[in-house]
Amino acid sequence: MTERDRDRRLVAILRGITPAEIEAVVEELIEAGFDAIEIPLNSPTPFVSIRLAAARAARHTGPARLIGAGTVLSPDDVDRVRDHGGNLIVAPNMDRAVISRALDLGLTMMPGVITPTEALAAIDAGARDLKIFPASLLGPAGINAMRAVLPDGIRLYAVGGVGADDFAAYADAGVYGFGLGSSLFRPGHGAPQVSTAATTCMASMRHVYGGR
Predict the structure, then answer these.
(1) Sheet holding 88-90, edge to edge
(2) Residue-wise DSSP of 5-47
(3) What CA–CA distance (Å, rounded) separates 67 from 174?
(4) Is 131 an active-site residue?
(5) DSSP code of 160?
(6) Does the pLDDT of residue 156 top 70, yes or no?
(7) For the packed helices 19-32 and 191-209, what is the interaxial angle rounded to 10 degrees?
(8) In this model, does residue 63 exceed pLDDT 90?
(9) What does R_g of the chain's alpha carbons equal in angstroms?
(10) Residue pair 174/158 in contact by the 8 Å Cβ criterion
(11) From residue 183, how far is each of 11, 63, 105, 126, 176 by CA, in Å?
(12) Is 38 one of the annotated active-site residues of the chain?
């Protein structure tokens, strides 16, 4: 497992962020080690923020980071994310048309699932990174039970009601990574607040997964 694998275990969810805030926040996240950033489409002018975030990330050296959108509900929105420089598509649900369009465009796709039926359908559609949402409803025990029926090579991300204090329990259940929303960013939080939270989360993740 490389350092970049560990860094991509955390996806920053910037729900509610504005274009005026995005560049400073993205800079702090990258400095803290985040390589995956999601801007939900129910944020103010999200495609502008995606374009600005992708451009800011491109200024940094190293392999390309995952910058894109969450709450993606249609293939047309997948196209718009790509057209604005995004390469990450995250959905709250399992929609075959969205998965197919994202994969056809060569984007990283993370559909939302909550049951084994949804998870297996998403895998059949081609997804390999699954967002367990809301993860707090299943908890580590429920996710561990679901993981037992999934094929090898599938990465599970716990999203919804999960913070740094929960990493160890979910890691023991076989969760690969986490989507972090309100524990990392809320509307009105400035870049310094995000930097502090991001550094704490990254340190916790590296401690939990460092020996795995």
Answers:
(1) 108-110, 88-90, 66-70, 36-40, 10-13, 177-180, 155-159, 129-132, 112-113
(2) HHHTTEEEE-TT--HHHHHHHHHHHHHHT--EEEEETTSSSHH
(3) 25
(4) yes
(5) S
(6) yes
(7) 30
(8) no
(9) 16
(10) no
(11) 12, 27, 31, 30, 18
(12) yes
What are 42's two structure tokens?
Answer: 């129910």
Place of tokens 């989507």: 179
Contact 47, 72 (CB under 8 A): no
Can you give the pTM of this predicted structure?
0.94
What are the structure tokens assigned to 11, written together?
Answer: 């996806």
Q: What is the pLDDT of residue 61?
A: 83
CA–centroid distance for 77 within its chain: 17
- In this predicted structure, the answer to whether residue 83 has a pLDDT above a threshold of 80 is yes
Provide the token pair at 85.
């420089």
Instruction: Return the pLDDT at 212.
Output: 63
Share of the chain above pLDDT 70, in %: 96
Which of 23, 31, 38, 118 is flagged as catalytic? 38
Two tokens, residue 141: 């025990």
